[in-house]
DNA sequence: TTATAAAATTGGTATGACCAACAAAGGAAT
DNA sequence: ATTCCTTTGTTGGTCATACCAATTTTATAA
């Protein structure tokens, strides 16, 4: 096989400008809160058009490095501790509809997972699930179900499908949901009845998987997630 | 306490343009891989300057939604791409079993998609699907179904679910399959009977979606993909 | 000193022009 | 008929200029 080459990335003028600015921020020449020179000044100093400078500033603004105000100039923002948000996360938060799309996605995928888990689960996996279920029971007695346990329970079901790719996929979806919703289930299902309902759902799901009854496992999971989505809608989209 | 007011966020023209474009991506008008109209066209259609359009495209490119190539136009990128695909790719190469896992994944996801498409499809989307179906019929008469048309057909079904995240997700699954298998369906289903079987499957699926019959659409898709997986296994894993 | 108004500054948009990279169409060689 | 190459039109990248809109600064008046 011939040697491979890296693709040549032609750098646009605007990117060079952006690069120089970020460099100045890195080396401390430009500090947080500083106002940049005006676009006209920058274009003259760097010997490029104002268009290119504007495009550069636009890029930096999209990265959260700058904030520009109409008529007021551009100032360096504080990005310490500010997580660099992934593109897909930005896309999701642009429209609340996306959150429901995610929930929808999760619902049918987990329904399938429950079915497959019922068919393929090993005794070991069943034991682990039973452990989590009992932990949830104890937590319920003491007060409230903890989200982490609930999460582990669902993850174990995913693992029991013995489909590694699915496991990876659903993990990604979980993290996206966590990010976009920004609240944990604990803060949504606070009432005693809600908690009990969820616990009952999980008991049913466990039953189905334990008895290797795919249909029952699937329907129980569907019921569970339909409830979760419904409550979620009520809470965040008031309908 | 005096009543509080939300800050008025003055939306720049470029942001309105970007918003309209993302909206088109959401509702499925623009799909992964599509080329946008040229900047000049967009500016004329929307009645804004090319400057504003360019700034909008720049924003979307920064978010990873677009990729623009000098002289080549701007194409819609897969939003889930970076996050999901990379880690899995390495995984797949390790074991041929992963390919079957992918097929399994695809099967139940597309079954859901067929069901949802039957419920949510618009007349426009149905028309597009019909076009692809007829194209496949003609190709069949002339010799062989082309994989690209088959792919477009399935993608259109995904779009008709009106779940953007799913659309991007399934796109990834497709590319993963192509990546791992490295052969096209054309090379698997060569016999006249196989081709006819597939064509009949697609007719059934279309019927279900056309008549807005979720159950029929889902079962037809299941039948189709079960066949595909079975033949695939025979060919590559000789069992 | 404070309040108001005017002027200068700065970002936002529009237009037109030109260059560079790409893609499709057409033609030449095989 | 196919392949390869050239040509030509299209598309993105950059520049220059002008004007509008929001802000900041300065000047002015009370």
How would you explain this protein's 3D organization?
Two copies of one chain form a homodimer. With 239 residues, chain A is mainly alpha-helical. Helices cover 69% and strands 3% of the residues of chain A. The first copy, chain A, has helices at residues 13-26, 39-46, 50-62, 87-93, 96-120, 123-142, 147-160, 164-181, 185-188, 192-210, 214-237; strands at 66-69, 73-76. In chain A, strands 1-2 form a two-stranded antiparallel ribbon. In chain A, α5 packs across α7. The longest helix of chain A is centred in the middle third of the chain and has 25 residues, at 96-120. The first copy, chain A, starts with 12 loop residues before the first helix and ends with a helix. The model of chain A has no long low-confidence stretch (mean pLDDT 86). The interface between A and B is medium-sized, with 33 and 35 residues. The structure holds a DNA duplex (30 and 30 nucleotides).
Apparent shape of chain A: elongated
Radius of gyration of chain A, in angstroms, nearest whole number: 25 Å
Distance from N terminus to C terminus of chain A (CA atoms, Å) equals: 60 Å
> What is the share of helical residues of chain A?
55-70%
Uncertain stretches of 5 or more adjacent residues of chain A = none
Largest sheet geometry of chain A: 2 strands, antiparallel
The helix count of chain A comes to 11
Beta-strand percentage range of chain A: under 5%
**Series of H and E elements of chain A:** HHHEEHHHHHHHH
| Mean pLDDT score of chain A | 86
Multimerization status = homodimer
Query: Looking across the biggest beta sheet of chain A, what order are the strands in?
Result: 1-2
Protein structure class of chain A: mainly alpha
């Amino acid at each position: 096989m011939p040697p491979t080459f890296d693709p040549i990335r032609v750098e646009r003028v605007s990117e060079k400008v952006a690069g120089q600015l970020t460099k100045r921020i890195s080396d401390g020449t430009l500090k947080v809160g500083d106002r940049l020179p005006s676009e006209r000044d920058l274009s003259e100093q760097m010997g490029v058009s104002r268009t290119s400078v504007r495009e550069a500033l636009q890029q930096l603004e999209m990265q959260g490095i700058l904030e520009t105000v109409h008529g007021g100039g551009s100032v360096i923002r504080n990005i310490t501790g500010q997580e660099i948000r992934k593109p897909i996360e930005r896309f999701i938060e642009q429209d609340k509809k996306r959150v429901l799309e995610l929930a929808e996605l999760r619902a049918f995928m987990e329904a399938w997972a429950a079915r497959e888990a019922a068919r393929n689960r090993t005794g070991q996996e069943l034991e682990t699930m039973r452990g989590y279920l009992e932990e949830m029971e104890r937590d319920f007695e003491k007060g409230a179900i903890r989200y982490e346990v609930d999460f582990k329970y669902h993850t174990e079901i995913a693992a029991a499908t013995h489909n590694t790719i699915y496991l990876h996929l659903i993990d990604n979806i979980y993290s996206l949901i966590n990010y976009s919703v920004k609240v944990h289930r604990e803060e949504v299902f606070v009432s005693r009845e809600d908690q009990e309902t969820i616990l009952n759902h999980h008991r049913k799901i466990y039953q189905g998987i334990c008895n290797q009854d795919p249909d029952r496992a699937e329907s129980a999971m569907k019921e569970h997630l339909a409830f979760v989505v419904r409550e979620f809608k009520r809470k965040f989209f008031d309908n």
